Each structure stands twice: as C-alpha cells, then as structure tokens.
Amino acid sequence: MGRKELTSPPPAGWYPDPDQVETQRYWTGSEWTDQRAPLPPKKESNVGVGIALAILLPFVGFIFGIVMLFRGFASGLGVMLLSMFSGALWATLILLLTSAGQSA
Predict the structure, then answer these.
(1) What digits encode the pLDDT tens for the residues 71-92?
(2) Are 51 and 72 members of one domain?
(3) Are residues 17 and 52 in the same domain?
C-alpha cells in the first residue's frame, strides 16, 4: 500500500487570502489569523518606455531591454529585438540618405 507522507505547513507569514481577492492574510504557521492587509502593488514593466526607446534610440532601448530582463520582465526580450530591428532601419535610412546626397 502507498505510504502517506506528512508535509509540514508553510512557515508563518503573509499569504494571499484564500477567502478575499486582492487581500493578504497572516498565517501563524498553524492557522489563519484575523489580520488582513491589501496585497502589495504589482511591479510595472514600463514596456511603453522600452518601445519608445527601442524605436527612437535603438542602443538605449537595447540596454533598457537588458535591464528589464534582469529585473524579471520577459517583455525585455521584445524590447531588445525591436531595438535591433529599429537600429537596422535607422542604419539603412542613414545609408540611403548619405548615398543619395553624394550622387546628387
């Protein structure tokens, strides 16, 4: 027959309240208390800033994307890729304009 393993309860601390949405509740390690508090605010990723930088200043946008990745935002990879694409477009545009200016 299968053996039932005993698991220890989670340690004391604040956890999402199982009864109320957007609330946390204190767990003593053995039972819930009546202490409740709002959940802490969620981290914002500033994707809009990253996209603007990626298009207008590709090098800065690329660095911003790296920082976003290191802070745990998966959208940083998209910002980095957009920066690379935007940089290639800017480089192509500059090359076209300079070659057009030289031939005129």
Answers:
(1) 888 888 888 888 888 888 888 8
(2) yes
(3) no
